[in-house]
């Protein structure tokens, strides 16, 4: 939609020319939906079929495909989003305007209040979302401002099925109120409305769309109401640093491990310059081939892996550094890094092996806080050169090492093999 199109102020609070399925207005229907909502696990939710008049909703779909959709891609999500639907010209998009009046009109608001017990108001807050192949939205809780009920009105093809992906997945929480595992999965269905109460534990996600020929089209939004008081998010527990003598008691001749090019003055100057200017440095072919194979075999074949969460912050497998992998936690390797990047270290380190398979990730989050200065070193170990299709199928292994330093300068030091 072009920016110079005439816009009219949206209508709210009235249900004229409602698209709503009037069977939902019957008292017994509201009572049944309320019961289903209250029984919803892991938190209160309900999935309402046949919400709207199907012919009217089809006209909405036909208008939606005329809109401009903009990519929304970051560490949390990959999808396309329309502009705010309440800002559209009602003469140009009459079906969408009718839907907006229906969703935020008296009848629908009354149904929402009866089902949820929440005093929602007529503030419109809605947009159309498109999830194509590989589109997804990772674990989050929706708690912003006065959002009290989140909803998704599905306009997917009639033949959408679970194997197509794009499911709304609801997470159970642990004793610390962190999301743990997916407890409920709702499959998108044409003309159905999934909605849930927005609370500090309403963690949910949209699973990856796996269909290559279907599009997950929906209208998503919120019903607003009196805000809830929320406790500040808990910080992650501090990392436990281990003295390097304990993490790697053996001595190592770093020149027997590391590519000779990284011992030259020219390369050292290049690394320090790049770290100072950009905060990161990629170093290819870092290890000697013999040592690289030794590390890769130990990491991929000889490690014991455990799942790491919670899923609103991270989701991958972790192993302890042992055998030849302990080289990266040694005081000898720390001394090399100190010479290479110009920092002194305290003699303590935190290290782990990481395995990223399908749908594995790490996210930036509010609880991520480190008081100490650190240098992160990541060394990639892949079985074959990176391929774009690995987004779906690959298992990537890496060693991650964090060392404390004395300066306020924060550096991420990337050690990477060719093709990673």
Low-confidence stretches: 1-16, 388-396, 404-420
Question: Major beta sheet, specifics?
Answer: 11 strands, antiparallel
Can you tell me the overall shape? elongated
Alpha carbon gap, first and last residue: 40 Å
Strand portion: 25-35%
The residue-averaged pLDDT reads 83
Rg calculated over all Cα atoms: 26 Å
Supply the helix-strand structural class: alpha+beta
The sequence of SSEs as H and E is HEHEEHHEEEEEEEEEHHEHEEHEEEHEE
Helix content: 10-25%
Strand count? 20
Tally of helical segments? 9
Describe the structure.
The chain has 420 residues and is α+β, with helices and mostly antiparallel strands. The protein has helices spanning 27-39, 54-64, 94-103, 106-116, 244-247, 265-278, 289-301, 331-341, 390-393; strands at residues 45-48, 69-73, 77-82, 126-131, 136-140, 147-154, 168-173, 179-186, 193-197, 204-206, 216-224, 242-243, 280-283, 306-308, 314-319, 348-356, 361-362, 373-381, 396-405, 411-415. Strands 1, 2, 3, 4, 5, 6, 7, 8, 9, 10 and 11 form an eleven-stranded antiparallel β-sheet that branches. Strands 12, 13, 14, 15, 16, 17, 18, 19 and 20 form a nine-stranded mixed β-sheet that branches. Strand 2 and strand 3 (77-82) form a beta hairpin. Helix 2 packs across helix 3. The longest helix has 14 residues, at 265-278. The model is unreliable at 1-16, 388-396 and 404-420 (pLDDT under 50).
């Amino acid at each position: 939609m072009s920016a110079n199109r005439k816009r009219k102020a949206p209508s709210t609070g009235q249900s004229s020319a409602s698209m709503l399925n009037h069977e939902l207005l019957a008292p017994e229907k509201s009572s049944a939906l309320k019961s289903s909502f209250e029984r919803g696990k892991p938190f209160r939710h309900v999935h309402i079929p046949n919400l709207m008049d199907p012919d009217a909703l089809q006209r909405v779909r036909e208008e939606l495909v005329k809109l401009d959709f903009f990519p929304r891609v970051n560490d949390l999500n990959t999808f396309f989003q329309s502009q705010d639907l309440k800002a559209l010209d009602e003469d140009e998009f009459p079906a969408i305007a009718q839907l907006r009046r229906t969703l935020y009109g008296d009848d629908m608001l009354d149904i929402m209040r009866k089902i949820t017990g929440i005093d929602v108001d007529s503030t419109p807050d809605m947009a159309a979302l498109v999830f194509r192949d590989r589109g997804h939205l990772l674990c989050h809780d929706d708690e912003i401002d006065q959002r009290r009920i989140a909803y998704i009105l599905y306009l997917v093809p009639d033949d959408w099925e679970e194997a197509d992906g794009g499911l709304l997945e609801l997470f159970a929480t642990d004793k610390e109120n962190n999301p743990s595992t997916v407890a409920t999965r709702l499959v998108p269905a044409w003309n159905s409305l999934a909605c849930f109460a927005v609370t500090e534990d309403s963690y949910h996600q949209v699973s990856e769309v796996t269909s290559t020929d279907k599009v997950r089209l929906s209208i998503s939004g919120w019903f607003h109401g009196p805000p809830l008081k929320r406790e500040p998010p808990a910080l992650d527990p501090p990392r436990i640093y281990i003295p390097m003598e304990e993490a790697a008691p053996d001595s190592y001749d770093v020149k027997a491990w590391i590519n000779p090019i990284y011992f030259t003055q020219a390369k050292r100057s290049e690394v320090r310059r790049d770290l100072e200017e950009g905060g990161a440095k990629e170093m290819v072919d870092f290890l000697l081939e013999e040592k690289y194979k030794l590390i890769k075999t130990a990491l991929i074949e000889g490690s014991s892996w455990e799942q790491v969460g919670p899923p609103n912050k991270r989701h991958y497998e972790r192993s302890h550094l042992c055998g030849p992998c302990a080289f990266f936690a040694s005081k000898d390797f720390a001394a090399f890094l100190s010479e290479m990047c110009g920092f002194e270290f305290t003699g303590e380190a935190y290290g782990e092996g990481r395995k990223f398979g399908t749908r594995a990730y790490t996210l930036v989050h509010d609880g991520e806080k480190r008081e100490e200065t650190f240098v992160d070193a990541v060394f990639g170990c892949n079985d074959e050169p990176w391929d774009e299709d690995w987004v779906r199928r690959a298992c990537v292994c890496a060693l991650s090492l964090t060392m404390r330093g004395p300066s306020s300068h924060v550096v991420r030091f990337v050690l990477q093999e060719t093709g990673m």
